[in-house]
Specification:
By secondary structure, this protein is an alpha/beta fold. The chain is 41% helix and 15% strand. It contains ten helices and eight strands. The protein is globular. It binds 2-phosphoglycolic acid. The site of 2-phosphoglycolic acid (PGA) has 13 residues, from β8.
């Protein structure tokens, strides 16, 4: 029997973390050095900590990533950061299209696709997020909504570069509740269809689940068909809970 590929477990610290949290990242890396995990592990701290944490994790199995990026390489975009800046700061990953950005800043699928395209071209592994609202979920539209979002948020370059999709039901994020196993598998199966239609390397790209992942539910979620990892918000700080989730990935 062939081993499934290692899961990708990503911490999304959102707008949390100051200098002392560099020590938290180091603690996580040391724990994983002492007892390695099969999982690929990344921390996406706020932009202000990216470089410091990247430096603290040099030589460790833990990578760093950003939580957003601008699609353009440079120019008059006050407050934004580019792919090259993130790479320069030590990032290997970038989350794009997180629902908090789609909701708070009105990011569209087309903007998300442009960000993902820039990220892939610049050598970052994009984590492209999709997910339905509570209303869409209640109306039974999950598969249809995430299929459309994924189709419109993935650039053609996704066929040739490593990236991940993340299924994050909006109503599950920070809510303490998750979809049932059948619902997660249905959404992931719908997303797999989209990835197969993109073709090339996209056909086997990991599909992460995100939304109230905790140590108590991680093993069951990670064992589901087509769940290739997890995107973890609230349970990723302090790092002890995140480490338990990583361990649940093997
Ligand atoms: P949560 O957030 O784990 O706190 O639900 C997940 C996310 O927003 O990526």
């Amino acid at each position: 029997m062939t081993q499934p590929p290692p899961p990708l477990i990503v911490a999304n610290w959102k707008m949390c973390g100051l200098g002392p949290e560099v020590g938290e990242a180091r603690r996580l890396a040391e724990a994983l050095q002492a007892a390695p995990s099969r999982a690929r592990v990344a921390i996406c701290p706020p932009a202000t900590l990216l470089e410091r944490i990247g430096r603290a994790l040099t030589g460790s199995p833990v990578r760093v990533g950003a939580q957003d990026v601008h699609a353009e390489p440079c120019g008059a975009h006050t407050g934004d950061v580019s792919v090259d800046m993130l790479v320069d700061a030590g990032a290997s990953f970038v989350i794009v299209g997180h629902s908090e950005r789609r909701t708070a800043y009105g990011e569209t699928d087309a903007q998300v696709a442009a960000k993902a395209r820039a990220a892939l071209a610049g050598g970052l592994e994009a984590i492209v997020c999709v997910g339905e609202t509570a209303e869409e979920h209640a109306a039974g539209l999950t598969a249809e909504v995430v299929r459309r979002q994924a189709r419109d948020s993935l650039p053609p370059e996704a066929a040739a570069r490593p990236f991940a999709l993340a299924y994050e039901p909006r109503w599950a994020i920070g809510a303490g509740r998750t979809p049932g196993p059948e619902e997660i598998m249905r959404a992931h199966a719908a997303l797999r269809e989209v990835l197969r239609s993109v073709g090339g390397a996209a056909a086997t790209a990991p599909i992460l689940y995100g939304g109230s992942v905790k140590p108590e539910n991680a093993a069951a979620i990670l064992a589901l068909d087509e769940v290739g990892g997890a995107l973890v918000g609230g349970a990723s700080l302090p790092v002890d809970t995140f480490l338990r989730i990583v361990r649940a990935g093997g």
